[in-house]
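Handout, tutorial session.
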Amino acid sequence: MSLSNQTVPTAAMRHTGPVPKLWTDTIDAHRSAVRDATLDATAALVAEHGLTSVTMSQIAQRAGIGRATLYKYFPDVDAILTAWHERHIAGHLQQLTEIRDHAGNSGERLEAVLQAFALISHQSHDTELGAMLHRGDHVTRAQHQLHELIRDLIAEGAHTGELRDDIPPSELATYCLYALTSASSLPTKAAVRRLVAVTLSGLRPE
């Protein structure tokens, strides 16, 4: 019998080439689901028991996975918390980017972005967890991206005459971020909106 006449099992044929896309997508979706479940479980446990009381065993149990599986994804609790914080910050950046991309002139879009950032700051509070996680490189990268986003909107507004052009947009973006980060200490959302209004007034031409 020649090789060309032999019947090759279907299962064997599936594994001779690259992994099928559907299979790859399924594996990626599973890994993403396990990762998300782990991050959500860890955040919930920290909120319930405090930062120093959470163990890998508790996380595995809450997430519904085995400890061995958990250790394949993360070496320890600190790594999980860092990943959770990275996801948290990435979500905020995505939100602000989507607001920036809405219709409207540069001044309107800048106001919407600053308002959203101030409200995010208002909802954030200084905690032991926050102090630990805000030292990571991912925070520095996110701050740089946010600064660029606001700087570019200010530059666009200065070019069209909506915003002042006597101070470099990069400096104005820095002023905005420093001012609106203080929204975390304000008592109400109304106070936050007033802070945004005062900040915007300093960006307009005299």
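The second record follows below. Compare its token runs with those of the first.
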Amino acid sequence: MNIERRHFLAGAIALTAGASAPLLAQPRRALPQPENLLPAQYRAAEMLPLLAEALESLDRHGRRVVHRDRIGLVDFNRDSGERRFQVVNVESGAVEHEWHTSHGRGSDPSDTGMVQSFSNVPDSNASSRGAYLTANEYYGKHGRSRRLLGLDPENDMALERAIVLHGADYVSPEMARDTGRVGRSLGCFAVAQDVRDTMLDLMGEGRLLYCGKAA
């Protein structure tokens, strides 16, 4: 394990240890039913299953998710040329923001723009489905970034794999318009550089990010 990875793991382990006590003290409250959370423009049948999964996950992991007013939702039923990273207001159901985001090379080896498969295996360079808890910020190879803790068996290696939120030059609306897709990551959720700070602020520490591909 190299020095950068050791520092990465050490910082996140310290974060998790420090956060465990207050997280247990967070009260749980009933969530609105999924169908009532969907704004009118997203009530298509194909949108409901993934949002329903995210809300169920928010309830299931509620003791660890400090901030429950908004969640991040990444819909890998959509291709990378679409704005598939959504910030959803849990109370109102409003989609506050939508951005293009990457998926992992290992999930789309032929560069089709669509996720073909998921993996949680180190060095697979693939995307992993499931619920993530946003963790601390750091500055690394891609500048300002945010660590993610995988909460499910399908993504519990996220920390070790350094799956994070960051900005990248290979993601932009112009690229999506001109080529029909954006670039691929090594499994991270990369967004355009000009929306990076907004995304990182809205998806601050202690929030739920859920990604998947509904059947």
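Points raised in discussion: The longest strand covers residues 130-140.
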